[in-house]
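Model: You mentioned two targets. I'll fold them one after the other.
Researcher: Yes, keep them separate.
Model: Target one:
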Amino acid sequence: MKNIVALIALGKMLERARREKRLTSYQVGQALGVATAFVSSVENGEIDPSHVDFERVVAFVGLPLKVVDDCKRPPRTIKLDSSENPSSNERVNVVDLELYRKQKWQQISLFDKD
């Protein structure tokens, strides 16, 4: 996944889903086929799970894989064509507005109190 914000968001979603289901980290680990320490590390955003483990966590949380896959994409950069200074190596980050809105929505929904 490599995106630290996405790792933290995934961890918060896992923790929230676990608490809503009134499960312990041990029980979630048993359901996912992983160690309790792995569940704790994912919840704390400390590790980047493998693709298989990532899919298991996403399925447990109940998110569509497509939404989470969008979060895994690295930011794009483009080179600016500067006619004034041809040797310029200026770069800008291109923001995917739809992805940005999804991430913002996920961040906001993480902190909703029921």
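Model: Target two:
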Amino acid sequence: MSRVQARVLTFLVIAVLFVSLPFAATTPAASGVDGPYGPTAGDTVPSVGPTGTAGAETIEAERVEFRITVYGNGSARWRFLYTRTLETSEERRQFEDFATEFNENETDTYRNFKDRAESLTQTGTNRTRREMDATDFSRNAYLGGDCIEVDRCGTVEMAFTWTNFAREDGDRLVVDDVFEGGMYLLEDQQLVFEHGPDVKFVSAAPESYTSSAPDLRDSSSITWRGETQFADRRPRVVYAPEDQVTPTPIGPQETPGSTTTSTTGGPVQGNSSTWMLLVGIAVLALGAGLALVWRRGDVISLGDGGISVGGDDGGGVASEPAVANEELLSDEDRVLQLLRENGGRMKQVNIVEETGWSKSKVSMLLSDMEEDDQISKLRVGRENIVSLVGHEPDAAGSPHDE
């Protein structure tokens, strides 16, 4: 599977799970993925509400975390956390309303999550010959989480236990065969492995992770951060009983605020034997990260151009002609126009702010444009500087000058 194919797969499987997100207006879902997790021509995003016509607003999660805790019996607890900063009191109120609905009622989102998990573990059983099951489902939407200001943070969490997730290798437990075909993390996503009380880490690959302690055996967690493409059967994490772990330091030490970004092992080559477990994992892990949805008096549409939110038909369009004109441009042309208007060079974060697109969308779009030699990118510290060809910053100058 090439890097571009991985991106396409990511967006397609997101559409599969978005089929059942609540409070969304009816629209066709994407198609084109074969196998048990592929959408069908009749897939739609249903309307939900007392009268069957509820408006909605979608708010993209700023941070998505996939947290896997492996226990000595080979089972793993999978948690999916989607976090968003609530900028205003109105956003906070809307999220509180959404959280009440999500926690008190079994929404379509949660039912879909459970169905996908059960299908996923059944596929795992067929492929690995280990009897797997999805049990102990839970959900929670709450104020708080991984934000600078915790009281301005909204988090949606869904979880389940995957039995026989790890395979036995002597006295060790190995996690790798469930990732046959590789896995892909988008920017602003991270994959975290933890260990239960009866086992510890022995090794992990690829070594682009960060660990919570200098010595892996003392670490409570290891983390891979996107944007990262893993090779076949990666990530690979090995556990052993606590009293059998040797005191060998493995892996880098966590540095507060640091990130590790890599493309690991080169492009993953797809073949007919690569099974659809990857797709199932992506459906669960990436789908709900597309949007947190809660009620509002607007109508949502999912078109080829992305997610849009609008109100009633009266008067709204005429008041924003500039936005309408910009929507006539392709995404690539919109970026090129912004760069020209800003002297040929911008910080990537400023492109995100100017367009209103998600960080993930901008990152992938810029990577594709760079591959097509439309722009160039320079990484300086934690900033990406995006330039038109011929407007790259001088090596001796400040790349932050715009």
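Researcher: Noted. Anything on target two?
Model: The helical segments are 3-18, 89-104, 108-128, 277-287, 321-326, 331-341, 348-355, 359-371.
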